[in-house]
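ENTRY TYPE: protein
WANTED: fold as tokens:
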Amino acid sequence: MGSSLTSIAPSQIYPVEYYLTELPDCTFDSNLGSTRFLKVARAKNREGLVVVKVFAVRDPSYPLKPHKDQLEAIKLLLKNVPNTVPFQRLLLSERAGILVRQYVKDNLYDRISTRPFLNSIEKRWIAFQLLQCLNQCHELGVYHGDIKLENIMITSWNWVLLTDFASYKPTHLFVDNPAEYSYFFDTSRRRTCYIAPERFNKIMSAEREKSAGTATISSSSSGSIAPSSPSLIIHSDEIKTGDLTYAMDIFSLGCSLAELFTEGTCPFDFSQLLKFITGDFNPHETIQKIEDSNMKKLIQSMMQKDAAARLTAREYLDVQHDKAFPEYFYTYLYDYMKKYVSIPAMSPDEKIYILKNDINQIIEVITTYEKSISVNESSNNKENVVSEGLVLMVPLLTSVLKALKHCSAKLNALEVLRTMANYLSPEIILDRLLPYLVFLAKDKYPKVRVAVIQTLTECLGLIKSISRSDSNIFPEYILPNLSHIAHDEAVIVRMAYAENIASLADIAMRFLEMTYSDMEPDPDSDALLDEKERNLYNKVSYEHELQALQELVQQSVTTLLSDPENAVKQTLLERGIRRLCVFFGREKGNDVLLSHMITYLNDKDRHLRRAFFDAIVGVASYVGWQCCPILEPLLQQGLTDSEEFVICKALAALSDLAKENLLQKQTLNKILAEAVPLLIHPDIWIRHSAVGFISVVARSSNVADVQCKLIPLLLPYLNYSGNRKNLIQVESELALLYALKDPLPRCIYDYLVKLQSLRNLFDCLCERKISRSITRVGHPPSYREMETSLLTVYNRLQSDGMTEEVEEQILLLKDHLQKVQIKKCNDMSMSSSEKDTGEIDLNLLPVSPQVHCISLVSSDNQFEKPFQTIQRQKNIKEEVGYRFTYYE
């Protein structure tokens, strides 16, 4: 495009919206910045957002058609090059020339300074794509002409797109005319200049300069030349155009890569590039900042001043094969990634489906190559399973997470995320994955929220080291963003949180400990502190942060412990109550956890009561013997529970507590008095558990206590009556089981528990026992005559096999039977008040049912009339026919 444009000043300036009227299918969205050369805007059309670049026509005689034809040719040539976005629509009118292409949010210049920052493998992946793109373009005879970071677009999954091919810009510039550079190439006003040195011509001839100056003076009065730009008229025949070469693009790309690998340090501005041409400047200092030695050599070669010394893009790819660029870039990854930009475009759900099916193969390809490299480098670190290359797949996954629609797709995405997390570094997990997991924690699908909690716990558990900057990630980010889950409307979500909150607390504690264990002294703040003072300061700081962490966890735990659904409380008891005790410490373990747990024994849910006894041992073992006075009535209550398997669990808990010496002797004696009668309980599991408890007590007691207290309690339940010499050791469970009398028959036990006149029966049996005890040997006992109701009960028990020996057993279980009966009656009364009668109150339904009467017989049926008469006589409220109810 002729360089005389630099000196033309418009007679009237219009906004970019003025020119969008040429595009009736596009509506203005926002301004992307304008220069004297082009006005740029973002617009909306039916296919999405587009970028519109407008060149306002100042001189109608200027030939724009050749440039339009050339851009049309470039569009056709690049239609199968996946890393390019040429202009898709080109429009010429009397007012303007308009270029339209797809809008891409970020360019590479913006991406360098955007979190999460690009790491080494990602930068090399970008460089590889750019070289592949240039190679494909150059093979088609297409040259860009203005490669810079602003013209390199990048997607959210790090796919590179080269845009704004500058065939319409001048190929050669004069070194003493910076206005042309500013007009055509410095659109960002950063003054960076990545134009190849061979594109700059020598100083203008004196005659041309004089001619230009004369023209400027003669034209200034008419206002057609900018007053601030004298001597800028240069005829188009003086500058060659259309002879771009691959070497020019290679130099520009080398400068762009240098800026990429030095975190935004520009190798050249305009003045430095001119000095570089004359040999007065060398970007060596900038290039030395590049850490990767292979990339440093590559960029140095691309930025050579001699164009003939620069290689082609294909040659650079071959040279850096298996050096800067891993082999799987060439053989697998590039071709695989191209699938996701193919036409027709895939939906986010489809992308996740494909990625889930391919993720294992991707991991195998990348890790196999990395293992071979580590073997070649004699690496003996077998514990390091972190994959550098798999980081490239993370943006592909996370870029579509927020756009997924179906529950199955989100679950698949979380499964892929869990799979990849095993091969990712802690920094990648915290910076790249964690924000998306927190986002999905508020998903509308309960299944997704459950999977998020499980995935989050699993991923955080993989982290073995943490930086100081991430030390407060739990109290400042994770826990506050998960606090709403404790109040989630879905029970399964709260259950998942209850299942994993202990693990999350453990991980948070580990993060805090790692932070202080790896903390190095600060030379500025610790200069005046000796080691003792520094340790004291760290201890105080650690305790302060631990307390803040405990308070956050306590809020969720307290909510879960008082959840209205027993399944949530049961899950918390079963999956982590002991670890929470360790996390909170003894004082809070007693105040927060135990104080809520003791209320569970009054709940009608038998599974919750069972879970209490499963969990109480872990809590008590950590809190210590101080909780013994609290536990005594709870354990006694468990021995007389209305559910037999709860009694069994209570006995098992007693055995474990006795092993840990957490029960005082006085408490043990009281509980033994209630546990020993269970030796004749009809349930075999209860009998075995009772034997186990008694044996544990015998092993932990001294000989005097066993002989004087324990054995007298056991004698009524043993086959060896009165002769202690025949009694084998009580410490042996098998021996004690062998010595026990036969249990009370099950049919009699069940009948007694349900018997309303149980107390009267006990009085009668006591009288019969007294009668037998005072009767002489050989004489039959004389029993008092029973009441009619009681005699019926007694006869029923006799028919079930009750003998005088069974009567003795019933009296031994007297207290136990009475307590069990009371609890069963209470449970029955509670359940009957909430019992579902099977009736539906239509007035309580959320919709109003419509009743339609349908007669199944004709009204003139002669045989039906007598039937109708009978129905009326019976005063039936319903009309003749069958009544159907449905809901709309």
Summary: The radius of gyration is 44 Å. Confidence is low (pLDDT under 50) at residues 210-241, 378-383, 875-888. The longest helix spans residues 566-597.
